[in-house]
Design brief:
The complex is a heterotrimer of chains A (266), B (272) and C (335). With 266 residues, chain A is mostly helical. Chain A has 15 helices and no strands. Chain B contains 11 helices and 2 strands. The two termini of chain B are 32 Å apart. Classes of the chains: A mainly alpha (266), B mainly alpha (272), C alpha/beta (335). Chains in contact: A-B, A-C, B-C. Chains A and B meet through helix 2 and helix 10 of A and helix 2 and helix 8 of B.
């Protein structure tokens, strides 16, 4: 308990520092948020242009697809907002030997790295995601129950941890190879599949994004449960399970990696 | 010319070494990019399965597949990181050092990047073209590869790369104004991606808008070479779009020179 | 206090063949070999000692320091501080130590310096009242007051170094690791830093482990020197014992009108100096001769020189520690 309180205290202090830093570079953050907003808009434009030619995409309406798309942006955006520093591990921190700093401090290194930075750019995704869900939900005629509301909210942190777990595992590769930014990038790119109904893919892809790099569990399956109310045990339960497995794996690989860490310079 | 090339050889070599050193990353990066390609494939597959029509906006399904693969390939060929390189140097001030070297500012970047690319290209190009043609053959049963079109495609790609390169140099100078390069690049890539047809063929846009966008420099980047390769343009159209590429190439080359002059002045005023 | 036992570190190093073909080859089939960076080093450091840790570039200094600070995991062997071992419990180990890397900073770059101390206070769980006392002490020793409200990126190198030392001392560590603390600083600032280190060591009995290229740091601060070369320990002892052991080198400087004094003098043939025992340099009129006084007595060399060439202004002195170490680095150490 004392440990958790301390962790939360440190997290709060890091966020406060980050906010102070941001005040020094306000313009940059506006640029970043608009940048990510634009990316989402161009993807939506793509969907809209496609739907100008077809009535539905393999039985999915535009509203349904946009809902899944919007829902996928919420865990993605939260992970991006709070745990973006892992990218820096993959690209710079290990290669330049700046990881030394974390090892000389009496704080869990993974925790330290995770909470050290926040990435305001992510608001671009988060805002679009929430807006899309809010706009499409009322039009989809979803039947609500207390359980459903509860599960829909509960699943979001776990979906977020799927992102964080995958990033942790892949970022750790840098401890052996010095640079793993592209490895993170490759796995992260798989989340592109998660934005659309998994039903449009073939079996191989569907199995990969469900069981191996399970981004479909961050959006499609939870959304499926919200839309249909079917099979919560799989649609929500798998997300929770995958988050637990991936984070555990992440922590293990990370700590193995530290033992292989070679620092930099002479 | 030979002497000049010798001058830049170290830059080409440095670029290649860089790529080779981080080989694992390089391969994974390519795979990551390929994933985006795969996503497009499945979506279009679903679209053509849902529409009931064989052709949408002049594209049949197999043409769309070739289009996706070619877009991916062309993106790799003409991609440029010059805006990063310039932006970083502007930000940390090392751009002043470039003044001291007896080589042209743009060219040093150009050749370093060229070195970086040679490896990428060899690894990327051959298999992808084979895949594209194979897919086309599997779906339609016809072989449609044309050597002439392929050569014009390469020419057009070269022009597109140079446009992209000089455009990125110009964009990099923005670092004098916007300090946050990552965000600015994000915006740029997104806008350029859409306007150059990388996200959806420009033929899908409403007619009026399409006419304007086809004239903009961005269509000269990916769209023109890909459409040429696919044989979507007639002879006259091909000439017209190649001319347009030439025009934009010269325009951005001029602009980058101008901006370089201005920044030299600025550096001198600031005292380096 | 600090106990280092048979510390060893091996790295795997990728070999890259030169040129275009090499780049292409290593793209597909990278080769690697094993490199022993640190070869079974052992030493103890008692409480309150300032230990100078030296060695030529690439000798493995930094690797040792990084193992001692818990950054690198040793391949074998171990180091302990008060019985604590970084590979067993890193967190409790690093609370005992403070680390400053001269070429890196642990300060929050964009924020006023004060903020860094606020964060470190939380990270190291320093209670409020001891934090205040601590800041007062560090302020007095390192004179932080004048820049504590400035953003770190605006500090001068000397100020930044003082700030970094303060940051590493905030949690009252028992051992302070300083890696190149005076690198890139001018003479006055160097003096400031040195006296601050000395004061911290005296007042708090803080054990200090110091690596540096500036041997004046060692001469002014260290009680003891550990020298390593090619990953092995080659010397361990006091500054004066180093001088006794390797200090027979004398340096003679004189001015002469003779243009090729070194040929005319021919010391080597006359006194039978070996290659390592003698060096002669001439710069204009000034000639510098370094020779091993155990081969030929100073008086003989001096007399012979005066006899052979016209000399104005001559002096002979003990080689300083810098000279000794330079020689050792150059020729390697033979036991």
């Amino acid at each position: 308990m004392r440990k958790i309180r301390r962790a939360m205290r440190i997290h709060r202090i890091f966020i406060a520092q980050e906010l102070k830093r941001m005040m020094e570079y306000k313009g940059d953050f506006i640029v970043g948020v608009i940048g990510f907003l634009l990316v989402q808009c161009s993807n939506l434009l793509f969907l809209w242009l496609i739907f100008a030619n077809i009535p539905s995409l393999m039985g999915w309406s535009l509203d349904q697809i946009v809902f899944i798309y919007g829902f996928s942006l919420i865990p993605k955006g939260i992970d991006h907002l709070f745990f973006d520093n892992l990218w820096n591990i993959g690209y710079f921190i290990v290669r330049k030997g700046d990881f030394d700093k974390y090892l000389t401090r009496p704080v869990n290194t993974l925790f330290h790295v995770l909470v050290e930075k926040i990435q305001i750019d992510a608001l671009g995704e988060l805002i679009v995601g929430i807006a899309l869900v809010c706009v499409t939900l009322p039009r989809l005629g979803v039947e609500w129950s207390v359980l459903k509301v509860l599960l829909a909210v509960l699943v979001i942190p776990f979906a977020t941890l799927i992102y964080t777990g995958i990033k942790t595992v892949t970022a750790s590769v840098a401890f052996w190879t010095k640079r793993s930014g592209s490895v993170i990038y490759m796995f992260y790119m798989v989340n592109d599949f998660a934005k659309y109904p998994a039903a449009i893919y073939n079996e191989v892809v569907k199995n990969i994004i469900t069981y191996i790099v399970p981004f479909a569990l961050t959006a499609y399956y939870p959304a499926l449960y919200i839309l249909t109310g079917e099979n919560p045990l799989f649609n929500i339960g798998m997300t929770v399970l995958a988050a637990a497995v991936l984070m555990t794996l992440g922590v293990i690989v990370w700590h193995r990696g530290i033992r292989a860490y070679e620092s930099a310079g002479s | 010319m030979k002497r000049k090339l010798k001058l830049y050889l170290p830059f080409i070599n440095a670029g290649m070494q860089e790529t080779a050193t981080y080989r694992v990353n390089f391969i994974f990066f390519l795979l990551g990019e390929a994933l985006a390609c795969a996503v497009s494939f499945f979506i279009w597959n679903a679209v053509y399965n849902s529409g009931g029509e064989n052709e949408i906006n002049g594209f049949s399904f197999e043409q769309m597949v070739v289009y996706i693969v070619l877009m991916f390939l062309t993106n790799g060929i003409i991609g440029s990181d010059a805006s990063w390189s310039v932006g970083e140097e502007v930000r940390d001030g090392t751009i002043a050092m470039r003044l001291l070297k007896p080589v042209s500012y743009n060219s040093t970047f150009l050749f370093q990047e060229f070195g970086n690319k040679v490896l990428t290209e060899i690894v990327l190009m051959v298999p992808l073209l084979v895949i594209a043609e194979l897919v086309r053959w599997l779906i339609s049963g016809a072989v449609a590869f044309s050597v002439v079109r392929f050569l014009i495609y390469l020419l057009s790609c070269t022009a597109a790369y140079l446009i992209n390169f000089f455009f990125n140099i110009c964009f990099g100078f923005l670092a004098f104004v916007i300090k946050y390069l990552w965000g600015a690049n994000m915006m740029k890539n997104c806008v350029v991606g859409f306007l150059s047809g990388a996200i959806i063929p420009l033929a899908f846009l409403p007619a009026g808008l399409r006419t304007v966008i086809l004239l903009l420099p961005f269509a000269s980047l990916n769209y023109t070479p890909v459409m040429i390769y696919m044989g979507m343009y007639s002879g006259i159209e091909t000439l017209w779009y190649l001319g347009l590429q030439l025009f934009w190439m010269i325009a951005f080359w001029g602009l980058s020179k101008l901006l370089w002059r201005l920044s030299v002045k600025r550096l001198c005023v600031q005292g380096g | 206090m600090i106990k280092v036992e048979n510390l060893r570190k091996e790295f795997k190093k990728t070999i890259k063949e030169p040129g275009l073909k090499g780049s292409f080859k290593s793209l597909f089939r990278p080769k690697s070999e094993k490199v022993v960076a640190v070869n079974d080093i052992s030493f103890d450091v008692p409480k309150g000692e300032i230990l100078g840790f030296i060695g030529p570039n690439g000798a493995g200094k930094s690797t040792v320091i990084k193992m001692l600070t818990g950054i690198l995991t040793p391949t074998s062997g171990r180091c302990t501080i008060n019985g604590k071992n970084p590979t067993v419990n890193r967190k409790s180990y690093v609370k005992e130590i403070g680390v400053v890397f001269g070429q890196r900073t642990q300060l929050w770059w964009d924020l006023p310096l004060r903020e860094t101390y606020g964060v470190l206070k939380e990270i190291y769980e320093v209670p409020e009242d001891s934090f205040k006392k601590r800041m007062a002490f560090l302020n007095e020793v390192l004179e932080l007051d004048s820049f504590i409200t400035s953003p770190v990126r605006t500090l001068s190198l000397g100020q930044r170094m003082r700030a970094d030392i303060a940051a590493s001392m905030l949690h009252s560590p028992k051992v302070l690791f300083l890696d190149e603390p005076t690198i890139g600083l001018d003479v006055v600032v160097k003096d400031n830093i040195r006296s601050a280190i000395e004061q911290i060591n005296r007042q708090e009995q803080t054990t200090v482990i110091l690596t540096t290229h500036d041997l004046a740091d060692i001469e002014l601060l260290s009680d003891r020197i550990v020298m390593i070369d090619k990953g092995s320990k080659v010397f361990d002892g006091s500054v004066s014992s180093l001088k006794d052991k390797y200090g027979q080198i004398r340096e003679m400087k004189f001015e002469t009108d003779s243009k090729n004094a070194s040929e005319r003098l021919g010391y080597a043939e006359k006194f039978g100096f070996g290659e390592d025992d003698l060096s002669v340099e001439q710069e204009g009129a000034l000639v510098t001769v370094r020779f091993n006084s155990s081969v030929a007595p100073i008086s003989d060399v001096l007399g012979y020189t005066l006899q052979r060439v016209n000399v104005s202004d001559i002096n002979v002195k003990d080689a300083d520690i810098e000279e000794i170490i330079r020689r050792l680095y150059k020729q390697g150490v033979e036991e």
